[in-house]
Amino acid sequence: MxxxxxxxxxxxxxxxxxxxIKAIAVGMVPEGRRPSSSTAWLLAxxxxxxxxxxxxxxxxxxxxxxxxxxxxKQAQAAIQDVQAELPDHPSDRLPAEIESILKLNRRLxxxxxxDGERAIMHADYNxxxxxxxxxxxxxxxxxxxxxxxxxxxxxxxxxxxxLERAAARGVTVKLLLDQVGSLKYPGYFRLGxxxxxxxxxxxxxxxxxxxxxxxxxxxxxxxxxxxxxxxQVGFIGxxxxxxxxxxxxxxxxxxxxVELHGPIVTSLETMFGIDWYTESxxxxxxELPELEKNKSPETNYLQLIPSGPGFDTExxxxxxxxVIHHAKQRLILASPYFVPDESMLEAVTTACYRGVEVExxxxxxxxxxxxxxxxxxxxxxxxxxxxxxxxxPKPFVLHSKFLLADPADDLALCMFxxxxxxxxxxxxxxESTMLVAQGNLIDKFNTLxxxxxxxxxxxxxxxxxxxxxxxxxxxxVMRLTSALQ
Length: 485
Prior knowledge:
Helices cover 43% and strands 21% of the residues. It is α/β, with parallel strands linked by helices.
C-alpha cells in the first residue's frame, strides 16, 4: 500500500523562506561585528527567524542611519580641519606613555588635549542643578544645552527658568534633548510648548519622524550631558535634567557634574555644534581658544573624546582599555551599568593578575532589570580575578561614571562623563567622555570614590557563590541579550 501525505503549499514556502533567511544570515550578520554580537544575533535569527530577522533589520542593521552618519562625518571632518593647527596637547613635556594615549584619541576623534582652569566638582544632585542655573544667569551671549533626558519638574524648574530669563534678556539659547530618552517621563508632551514659550531654540536628538518617511534605528541614543555658556564655562558629567527620583517613588539617583573654565570649553562647544548641525542644518560659529601661557598648579590637561555610531573606530572603548592597561598600582571603576565586551573584561582581569588593586563601584540593584542581571553575570570572573566589587546600597542608584588609574601617582589618569562601561555606550550611544592627563580633578574624583566606598557594601566571592540556580540562569540569559547590537 502506498502512503501519500499532502502538505499545504504554504508550509513548503515557509520552510524555504526559513532556510533562506538562515543561510543569508550566516554570511551577512558577522560582517563588521564583534564575535559576541554576531553569535547573539545569529542565535536569535536561527532559533526564531521570523522574529529575529525583523529585529536585526530594525536594530542591528548599520544601513538605516547611513544618512545621519554621513552628515556627522562631514561636520566632524570640517571641525578637524579647523583644529588641525592646534598641538596634540598643551604641555611641552609629558611622559611618553600618557602622550601616546593623547595621540591615539586625537587621531580617532580629531580633538586635542587642552587646558582646563577652575575645575569644580558638583556632587550634590539638586545643588548641581542650582549651580548650573546660577551660571546661566551670568550668561551674556549664548547658552548651549545638550542633555539626554530632560523633564521640566519641581527640581529642574530653577534651571529652565534661568534659561527663560537668559532668552528674555537677549541671550541666544539652543537646547538639544533625546526624544526616546525623554519620552517616558512626566510632562514630555507639554515640554516642547513650554520650551518654545520660554523663547528657547530647541531640537530633538535622533527623532523618529515616521510621517516624514525617515526611518532610523530606534535603539540609538544621544546620551551626552553638556552645557556651554559664552564659550567660557562648561559643564559635563552624568546628571540628567530631571528630579533625582526620576519617575519612581523610593529611589534616588547619585550623580555629579564638573564645571570647567578655560580653553577646554571650546571642545564642548565644538561637539555641541556638530550635534546641532546634524539635527538642524544650522552652522554655529566659534573661535579657536587661546592657549594658556601661565598655568597654575591646578591646571588640568583635558581631552574630550566624543563617541558614537558615527565613529567607525570605537574611540570610547579604545580609550577605556588604554587607560585600564596603563594602571600600575590601582584602578577604580564606577559605572551604573558594567557590561564589558571581551576586550574590556580581559583588560580589567589582566590588571588584577598584574598585581593592580582593582575596585568596581556599582549599584546594589540597577534600575533596569535586564542590565542588572547582565552585569551580574560578570561578577564571578571579576571576583575570581581579584576585583573588589563595592555595591551602593538601595534605594540609591549609583549613576556616576568615572575611571581612575593610579590616582596617587605622577602618571595618574582619570576619565569621566556620560559613558557607562557597557556595550550600549561603546556601540549604540553618542557619548561625551573627558580624559584628565594631569591636574586637581584627579584628586577630586579620588575623594568622590572614597566617599562612595564609605557607604558601599563589599560583595565577596564566598557570598556570590551562594546564589541559586535560578539567579545564575537569569543572569546568563540577560548576558546574551546585552550583545545584541
